[in-house]
Amino acid sequence: MTAPRTVLLTGAAGGLGTLMRELLPPHGYRLRLFDQRPVDGAPDAITADLGDKEALREAVRGVDAIIHLAGISLEAPFEKILRSNIEGTYHLYEAAREEGVRRIVFASSNHAVGFTPRPAGGTDTVPVTTPRRPDTYYGLSKGFGEDLASLYWDLHGIETVSLRIGSCFAEPTSVRMLSIWLSPPDCARLLHAALTAEDVGHTVAYAASANTRLWLDLTTARALGYAPQDDSEPYAAELIAAQGELDPANPEHAHIGGAFCTDPPIWPY
Ligand code: NAI
Ligand code: 15L
């Protein structure tokens, strides 16, 4: 696929959106920004809710592709998840269909399969074909997004790469994160691959760096052309010294989703 030039970035005011606003332009993208909150330093960003169909349609008009990060990124009451993550993602896909956008990258999450027992890591990883085991309403909404993407590919020919992101922050901050960390530069590399790979149909891929202790199978990500450059291992000694090794008898440590399976962090708004 020819590299898309103009890309709509939803969720641009969020943590990942803020990182990608810096890291994606060097890969050749001009970003149009969308979020319900104002985006710092970007007066041209579109400030609107995913429920605002007219604003969404205007936002997607003329773009070559969409990176859909907007949504509740933690656990929340079902009604809130329904509005932002389920209905909001539906409205985005409808706007894309109406305006003829042919490629979307959807920010799914490891929490779509969060109750999957954690593998040993290294060569023992969880495949993308593992049955969904959401750990929260949040994780459930990510499974919905993946299925919506599949439907819009089969019905309307809109291609999506659903990226089940592990944990994308500047540095890993927990022992669990050592196994699912996605460095921000690797995130930009993977988004670039997902935007430019040919004939993706609907592809599901885990999104993580080349971590020594990796739990997630990167085969489909690599097939898109993703070549991760980073590994969380340099952070391992200090994190393990401070927090100890994962304890298989502790339910929080027993599953991919970590604390989302036991005491999920709650969306504060
Ligand atoms: P974040 O919470 O920092 O940012 C999400 C953004 O979406 C916020 O700026 C918020 O204002 C916006 N938003 C929420 N509901 C909206 C609505 N109804 N209309 C318009 N905008 C709305 O989250 P973060 O960390 O930047 O994550 C971005 C995406 O990636 C999310 O979809 C999240 O579920 C997903 N993800 C992130 C991971 C990570 O490690 N950062 C891991 C797995 C998935
Ligand atoms: C997610 O899906 C969240 O959006 C992010 O804030 C992290 O909690 C991440 O998963 C994780 O599992 O560490």
What is the topological layout?
Elements: E1 6-10, H1 15-23, E2 30-35, E3 46-47, H2 53-60, E4 65-68, H3 78-99, E5 103-109, H4 137-156, E6 159-165, H5 177-180, H6 184-196, E7 202-207, H7 219-223, H8 236-243, H9 251-254
Parallel strand pairs: 1-2, 1-4, 2-3, 4-5, 5-6, 6-7
Helix pairs in contact: 1-6, 2-3, 3-4
The structure holds 1,4-dihydronicotinamide adenine dinucleotide and D-galactaro-1,5-lactone.
The site of 1,4-dihydronicotinamide adenine dinucleotide has 23 residues, from helix 1, helix 3 and strand 5.
Description:
By secondary structure, the chain is of the alpha/beta class. It has a single domain (6-261), classed as Rossmann fold. Helix content is 35%, strand content 14%. It has nine helices and seven strands; from the N terminus they run βαββαβαβαβααβααα. It has helices spanning 15-23, 53-60, 78-99, 137-156, 177-180, 184-196, 219-223, 236-243, 251-254; strands at 6-10, 30-35, 46-47, 65-68, 103-109, 159-165, 202-207. Strands 3-2-1-4-5-6-7 form a seven-stranded parallel sheet, with helices on both faces. α4 (137-156) links the parallel β5 and β6 (159-165). α2 (53-60) packs across α3. It binds 1,4-dihydronicotinamide adenine dinucleotide and D-galactaro-1,5-lactone.
Order of helices and strands: EHEEHEHEHEHHEHHH
**Helix content, binned percent:** 25-40%
Number of strands: 7
Kindly state the mean pLDDT as a whole number? 97
Give a quick account of the main beta sheet: strands, pairing sense, barrel closure. Answer: 7 strands, parallel
Individual helix count: 9
Radius of gyration, whole Å: 18 Å
What CATH first level would be assigned? Alpha Beta
CATH level-4 homologous superfamily: NAD(P)-binding Rossmann-like Domain
Structural domain tally = 1
Based on secondary structure, the structural category is alpha/beta
